[in-house]
Design a protein that fits this description.
With 144 residues, this protein is an alpha+beta fold. It has one domain: Sandwich (Immunoglobulin-like), CATH 2.60.40.3340. Helices cover 17% and strands 50% of the residues. The chain is built from 2 helices and 10 strands. Strand 5 and strand 6 form a beta hairpin. Helix 1 packs across helix 2. The radius of gyration is 14 Å and the shape is globular.
């Protein structure tokens, strides 16, 4: 639990630094009473302990996509699926896993980062039988 809490704190601290879209510092989409927060970052930013506790691969060439879903401003469970597409149009499926910690619910997936480029995330978020689509671009960089 302590490691998971550290992971979530790391995600929160990484959000302001890693937001690629300066015009939209808060990365979220609103679908009626459902709000989807999202962020992507290089997994090398995670400590080895946090990566191990969450089952994530810590690497300069692996990214992490973090999704949090709120319904009526409260954490909500969802079915999250999607793909990440590079500039050449190559698409890779994302495999999300749910992390629940002290009432908060997060969905995380890893993706490969070969080089600095802008990738497109196409996501489907289903909450309470209602499906919403979310697509966004983000510039990603291999880590240190």
């Amino acid at each position: 639990m302590r490691r998971l809490a550290l992971f979530l704190i790391s995600l929160c601290l990484a959000l302001p630094v890693l937001a690629a879209d300066a015009a939209r510092p808060e990365r979220k989409e609103v679908f009626g009473d459902v709000t989807v927060h999202y962020s992507a970052f290089t997994s090398s930013m995670l400590t080895p302990e946090v990566a191990a506790a969450t089952g994530l691969v810590r690497s300069k060439n692996q990214g992490v996509l973090n999704i949090a879903v709120l319904k009526a401003s409260k954490p909500a469970t969802a079915v999250v699926s999607g793909t990440v597409k590079d500039l050449a149009g190559r698409s890779s499926p994302l495999s999300f896993k749910q992390i629940t910690e002290q009432g908060a619910v997060y969905y995380i997936a890893q993706f490969k980062i070969d080089q600095a480029e802008t990738v497109t995330f196409d996501l489907n978020i289903e909450t309470g039988g209602v499906s919403n689509s979310l697509s966004f671009n983000q510039e990603v960089f291999p880590g240190e």
